[in-house]
Amino acid sequence: MSENAEDNAVSIPAQSDGAAKGAAKGATLTKDVAPGETLLKVTGLQKHFPIRKGLLQRQVGAVRAVDGIDFEVRAGETLGVVGESGCGKSTMGRLITRLLEPTAGKVEFEGRDITHLGVSGMRPMRRDVQMIFQDPYSSLNPRHTIGTIIGAPFKLQGVEPEGGVKKEVQRLLSVVGLNPEHYNRYPHEFSGGQRQRIGIARALALNPKLVVADEPVSALDVSIQAQVVNLLDDLQQELGLTYVIIAHDLSVVRHVSDRIAVMYLGKIVELADRESLYKAPMHPYTKALMSAVPIPDPRRRSAKSERILLKGDVPSPIAPPSGCRFHTRCWKATEICTKQEPPLIELKPGQQVACHHPENAEDQAPQDTVLLSAAKEAVELVAVGTAAELAAAEKASEAAVEETAVEETAVEKSAVEKSSDRPESTDK
Amino acid sequence: MTDLSKSSGAAMTEPVVSDSPAPTAFLEVRDLKVHFPTDDGLVKSVDGLSFTLEKGKTLGIVGESGSGKSVTSLGIMGLHTAGQYGKRKARISGEIWLDGTELLSADPDHVRKLRGREMAMIFQDPLSALHPYYTIGQQIVEAYRIHHDVDKKTAKRRAVEMLDRVGIPQPDKRVDNYPHEFSGGMRQRAMIAMSLVNNPELLIADEPTTALDVTVQAQILDLIRDLQKEFGSAVIIITHDLGVVAELSDDILVMYGGRCIERGPAEKVFYEPRHPYTWGLLGSMPRLDRDQQERLIPVKGSPPSLINIPSGCAFNPRCPYADVPKDNVTRTVRPELSEVGSQHWAACHMTQEERERIWTEEIAPKL
Amino acid sequence: MIVGHRKTSGGPRSAAGPRAVLAYLIRRLFAAAVMLVVIILVVFCIFFLVPRWAGVDPATMFVGKQADPGAIEAVRQKLGLGEPIFVQVWEFFKGLFVGRTYAAGGDVTNCAAPCFGYSFRNEQAIWPVLTDRFPVTLALALGAAVLWLLFGVAAGVLSALKRGTLWDRSAMVVALAGVSLPIYFTGLLSLAIFSYGLGWLDAQYVPLEESFGGWFGGMILPWVTLAFLYAAMYARITRATMLEVMGEDYIRTARAKGLREPVVIGKHAMRSAMTPVLTMLGMDLGALIGGAILTETTFSLPGLGQAVLKAISDKDLPVILGVTLITSLAVIIANLVVDILYAVIDPRVRLA
Hints:
The complex is a heterotrimer of chains A (428), B (367) and C (352). Chain A has 428 residues and is of the alpha/beta class. Chain A has helices spanning 2-10, 89-96, 119-128, 146-157, 165-175, 192-204, 222-239, 250-256, 274-279, 284-292, 335-339, 372-378, 387-404, 409-418, and strands at 38-53, 58-74, 78-82, 104-109, 112-113, 129-132, 210-214, 242-247, 259-264, 267-273, 308-310, 345-348, 351-353, 379-381. In chain A, helix 7 (222-239) links the parallel strand 7 (210-214) and strand 8. Chain B has helices at 2-7, 69-77, 108-114, 126-129, 136-147, 152-165, 171-174, 184-196, 214-231, 242-248, 266-271, 276-284, 352-363, and strands at 12-13, 27-38, 41-53, 58-62, 91-98, 101-102, 119-122, 202-206, 234-239, 251-256, 259-265, 338-341, 344-346. In chain B, the strands form two sheets. Chain B has an eight-stranded mixed β-sheet, with helices on both faces. In chain B, strands 1, 2, 3, 5 and 6 form a five-stranded mixed β-sheet that branches. In chain B, a hairpin with a 2-residue loop joins strand 5 (91-98) and strand 6 (101-102). In chain B, helix 5 (136-147) crosses helix 6. Chains A and B meet through helix 6, helix 7, helix 8 and helix 10 of A and helix 8, helix 9, helix 10, helix 11 and helix 12 of B. Chain B: It is a peripheral membrane protein.
């Protein structure tokens, strides 16, 4: 993808400010934006892929891959983006690097609106924003030596680094932990982890400010994953890079990120500091997602009652559910969730959530009718625990019912009793 | 490894005349070797693997790509031998005892009859593992009727029953759907229904959740656990994810370079690992259940080539403790599994005391 | 209310029931009809409009260059070549359904429906010529297709299963020869050996109405020759797809179920491997029905191919036009049949 984009850039006549900027060493780097200030700002970003059918290629609908998201990335931080397949996280990554044209919304980089910049307008931007891809096998041209691959950005941008391209490429190779003498080798001579390092070196060539990494380690073996994660870490420290790291693996994302955005069906449902998010997630989806991660600890197996098991699959992004998109699978869903989309609001400093009934925070719509039948179907606890646990669960759910909707207690109590062999998730 | 087995074809069994008596365990693998001749040399995908498994128990086989874990599972199922054509045949030796029958020297047609009935398998990617042109029902019915002499109607009733058991809503309708009309999680459920339709005693799950999302993965792991409880079968779960192994396994076998380097009860392997590679795996993994680690502890280098496995310990080139002095051994000798605790084995030249010290003092505190 | 919302996550997706198949069929039929009209338009333009742009009077081409101006003028009037192009197209379309009368002065020629045009060179309507010759070509193509499918696919499957063995190598060498040797070479060679040399088979075409035995005997060599070429191509493509399919995960699943190997190959592998073969068959049959020029010429078969060859050398435009239309029709119908078969074989196609 990036190669295509860069190829497009080549066709544009050489730019006048082609002065050597490339080879600045990390220490001497001058940043236009001070650490902590907003580097990238996204408002109302949308990407709908039209679905066309029939002879006339009429548009019959759209895959709403990204459907209105707002966030910002601060200089020097790492923003992690997690979500399940189809949540739009990769599309988001391609939108902010402008490899895809947004349907609506605004992308600002260093205060400049880059949403609708043309190829030539994007050209200087391409230097500041780089992308790392998931598949280290297919993102490197097999017919080019790695020297050519890593040196390509210099040629495309018309930049002549200090001491020449070759020397700079060799420096980059050693920065990412590869042998500089392997300059003339081809991608197939490297292992998966090494290829990912080559991809990183290429992304770093022009000293970017923002690096967007789409699943940078998911194609790698566990022991290699750690090498690459550590490398990204070191590079950030040394070069003051800003990362947006997109991944499906929650443990990896927690390890690398300062702040984390959780996406579900094209929306950000929660955006928070790492600690707050993992210690006290507010959105039920975040909570379910985290509890679903298998814990590498055989002793924790007995403590399965912590796990929330979501039922069913993610609905189609072509026709997302009305109101809150998660309500079809949520155990806390009420009337309002089916009708009104919850806005992403800051409920605690540094923790934004889009939910009517958040966890670990005050209920946003406490008077609403509980859809117990839906809740019953939506979730079940894994542990068919001891009798004591069962009783406790039952009591708790009864209490919850009494709290929420007094007038419907009778109906719901019977529902609880019926479902007592499968205790509801009872979040106190 | 699976693509190797595909391309280079398969198997010539070399029955090993063995004096050792038939085992008492339900499944016992003895000194299994699976080698594939290629243009570049002999690929020793599995090179001397032994383990036992009882009914009702789960064995987790962990390893990175190329460690030989998938080749092992296909070897047990006899799928290197079945229907492989062409010149390059896999060379398989050793013994695989399933419920008192040695599979490698048995009549291939007998082994075929065991497949699907006594031993069944779940694959990584249910979309490609199910035939796109047949309905889910047709595929389950076929699996049932190979081993049961019943009419199609009875078999279909059985298929619906199985789909219902694995939690597919409206099974009587979904049974007539094609795989592409199912979601990923539902497809894997259907695959599980198909493999369990004959109540197999041994179920091998090869990366059953790798292709799935995390919330769906939780559902499938839960299902496998429930079904095992219900059917009481022996389960081998093959994965690269230590979390998945920890969720399901009673015993864990860690593979590296085609060999087992550590084997033992799950608790032991997680809490008292005695091989540097196992330490490496544990240290490489960011963990949600612990406080934020400052840094991960990766294993340096990359996995070995299976053509030129180092003559000594296969892990030696990557081992951070390769320089620790060892008693009376040279680097060129391959370490054998030795008992380091009850039912717990590891293959390392370092002394037990040394390893215990390194683990408790150097590794464990950093995890 | 809740039920309505839950549909998105739980309920079965649009199942490929009979209605979906029917809708697919209707869509394909409609597309085929549109395609045919477009082809007629294009062909018409090529034959009647392009010469005019090139400064050639189409009327001259119909009669031949040596014809006197009076004859040319008569043809122009008869065919309505003086009319605007859309009128001509309309006349042609109308002729297809209700027939047509060519009139110039007192000279009136009737062309009954379906009128594909009139050959002034031979003083006859095109349609009877086509209907006369079509069965010969059809018999040639279908007979050869049966042969090449039988032998080509079998050879391909065997080669795939015995990859790298002597059998595989020799089969592929023969296939390569089959693909690269031109029909007139293999045809003449077979004629020389089996007809003139050994005298086993008669080289003469005998119409079916006269004697079935004679007809069949005369067709054997053309069938075999044509089938040899195509069998070679089909063997190669079958081998390639078979090798690919045998490596699929679902084949491994089929074995893991405990299926016998012949069932794995015959039921699971073959069904997938046949899809590309089917596509090829549709296109090849369509093209062949339009005239197997080389085979028909080599064996002197009075088929469409021979007719078109003669028409080209005579510059008999109406015949060429008629044959072109018939060929297009054959290709479209063949493709339609293939599409329908495809939908029967591959359930994923139905919803597309």
